[in-house]
User: Fold this.
Amino acid sequence: MNLPSIVRWATGMRWQWKVFIPIVVVLFLSLSMIALMVYNLDLPNPTWILFAALAFAVLLCFVLLSVLLVLVEQPLEELMRTIARVRRDDLSARVDFASREDDIGKLGRQFNEMIEKLEASRKTIEELHRKDMGRAEHLATLGELAAGLAHEIRNPLAGIAGVVDVMGRELPPQSASRAVLDDVRNEVLHIQDILNDLLSYARPRPPTFHPADLNITIEQAATLAKQQVRTRPIQVLFTPNLSLPPVCHDPALIQQVVLNLLLNGIQAISNEGAVEVSLTREERNALIVVKDNGKGISPEALPKIFKPFFTTRKEGTGLGLSLANGIVRSHGGTIEARSALGEGTQFRIQLPIERPALDQQESAATPWG
Assistant:
């Protein structure tokens, strides 16, 4: 038997043998020394002396093993039984040897404390889960209500817009009411935008994933954004990444996200400036960065920008960034914002380059929100 085999054999031994073998070896050596001394000293009845020493050694081994059995073996068996109960989801299980005042008892107390913390954590998680489920049901009901109201409002709103157009055509060119009608028309369009965003938020369509060039998706969004700044001294710049492999995504939805961020950046710039979008790779993710040199977002408002109906602009609906967050999450990605007043804003979007087939099916079957 070679050395590695001996090491493996010794490692796989039960702890009782690891304790018993050194005791036997020490006792054997002690008996050998006693026998040598007895014969060298030429004592009378050496056989009886050796027999007595052997009997004492056997008794000592028995006592030591009994003590080890009581002090170590029983707590270990109890610990294994308790662990088995915990694995069966019984978090009321505790070890009784925690009352001992030695190291074994300290181990038992630490084990019981760990189970108590685990039980408390599970209760907290269950409570949070119940609250989240109630909140999700509440939001689902509100979403259905909002979608229904939006549909009901859109029809009369279209009628109002038609009447305003008819009135505008019938008014004389020099009439002062034309300015009022223009304001009414703009407000009607604003309400229509709010309703469209509300419907998109309440009843989003599930993404359709397929591998596609993310450079093309972002370039199309940048092209649409440039149409909004043709008469303003604002640049929309795009830095592609031609080495990036095809990314599994829904081009229409991701284009919507990037366009929304670009338009937000444009609206944050009061005079001249630039909105830049770049595409890089971070390990298994594609990283889209959209930044502007606009007025920035206050520290108080920054944590709230992804919440529905929160906006820092008078003309905003407060749903654009919430929709963008939902789209990115439906792709298995993340979106975060970094900003400071007077220093502009930066949005970072991470999208996984590849998605498991099961993940795609689940995302396609479950609308995001």
About this structure: Residues 358-369 have pLDDT under 50 and may be disordered. The chain is about 60% helix and 10% strand. Residues 143-202 form one domain.
